[in-house]
# Entry
Amino acid sequence: MTGPTVEQAITRAHQEEWARLVAGLTRRFGDLDVAEEATAEAFVAAAERWPRDGVPPSPGGWLATTAARKAIDRLRRESQRDAKHQAALIVRDDTPPDPTGPVEDDRLRLIFTCCHPALASEARVALTLRLLGGLTVAEIAHAFLVSETTMARRITRAKAKIKAARIPYRVPSADDVRERLAGVLAVVYLVFNEGYLASEGDDAVRVDLTDEAIRLGRLLRTLLPNHGEVTGLLALMLLTDARRPARVSRTGELVTLDEQDRGAWDRALVAEGRALIRERVEAVAAGGDPPGRYQMQAAINAVHMDAPSARDTDWSTIAALYGRLVLLDPSPIVRLNRAVAVAEVDGPGVGLAEVDRLAKVLDGYHAFHAARADLLRRLGRGGESRAAYDRAIGLAGNPAERAYLTRRRDQLAG
# Structure
């Protein structure tokens, strides 16, 4: 087998098996460090052996067996007493434990473990993205808008905290699920976003991550079918993913919502997402809890997708929905999105004034400069627009997005 083919097999196995291996080893050995390092060592072994011996018939099975052996070897090396004896016992008993709680999927169990309340909120999300999503530290840092060094320290501290506090890997109770749900939803959504427009690498979209996030979203909805935010997040991901076929052009350039071929959208996903939103509207009307941030974002997406064309978009409703969302989530990125909607209603000058208020906190975020560039272009301020496009291009990690921004910059007069 040729080198590139083996490389592709390893890449695909990493995308499909990483989370399953880490979660399964964590259940079996009860140690996050052991699970992650043994999984990583298994992939190193694959990179060494598969080019020589060929890709095995079952790559996932080969990796699982190798990772388990690596974990046992580490435990034996680290202790001549209890851990060694425990490892020897584990070798003879591969039967999965009986389910004792509401979460039956190893990967979801691991998410809830990483989202333990003893950890800071950002650490929970970052650690789970690393262990479950298999995202690199650089990708996670991009999602959090912090430096790679800062994120590496955060993940290391989180793992040390789990070990020091002796936080167990166990099936969470119903109370645990509700207590940690906000962190779990944040994890799933960040995994989805990283897949929908990858921050690094040559691929504009990482379908493995978007599909995994939606799969986890469906499992969460099965677990908590009446929870509004669980339903809202799933609806949001489905409506967003429905646009994926129209998201990147044949030449590899990002296609923004206003330029997309709406006929290429996945109608089945659109219908499913809209049905979930209708379900939540009816539940709220019947006296249920008011909508949270994911339900509001899903509603905003639905308004966009209800318009037969970009010029028919009901921007007044979208701006009003963003106004309500800011009350729930006053983060700079939500405020940036609201400013873009305000610009469509009240004009680019008003929108730019709102965008510029976020300059200090969002200076390292490419979408901030892209929004400024577009508003400056509409105001006829070509030189300033070009500079803003240059800044956005320099910060954008996705090749499709860089291609789009470059084209827009090059279309400026002069």
